[in-house]
Design goal:
single chain, 153 residues, five-stranded antiparallel β-sheet, 7 strands, elongated, DUF1178, DUF1178 family protein
Amino acid sequence: MKVLDLVCEHGHIFEGWFGSEDDYTHQRETGLLACPVCGSRAVHKGVSAPYVQTRRGAERAPAPPAEAPAEPAAPMSRQAQAELLRRLRAWVRSAEDVGERFADEARAMHAGQAPERRIRGRATLAQAAELWEEGIAALPLPDTPLLDDGALH
């Protein structure tokens, strides 16, 4: 097993586990790799000393040359990423999931026709744009498994 530090085009750092270098290359070239924070598929290897599990036990392999990003971005520290995800997960846990009714519920709360509360759900880009035009602020979050209920426990 090969464990690599990966970086997306926005500087988010995350870990990837691969059976081999070919496995990493295949997943990257076919678009299977995506940043768990923002969903970007523009992912490259970061500077790391990959961990390689062998039959005899754990050994450190020399780090392969890192691929340089097209445009360098100021990476967010691991601690900052962890804190951001912790806060987002806490917010998601505390919000009522209204599903596809998100835009209607947000409008009802804004108009005073529904009680004020934290809600989450799904809206199309057009619905989100309409909410903003109506003066209703909504925070779009990426559809990432890291924020799903199953990943929260």
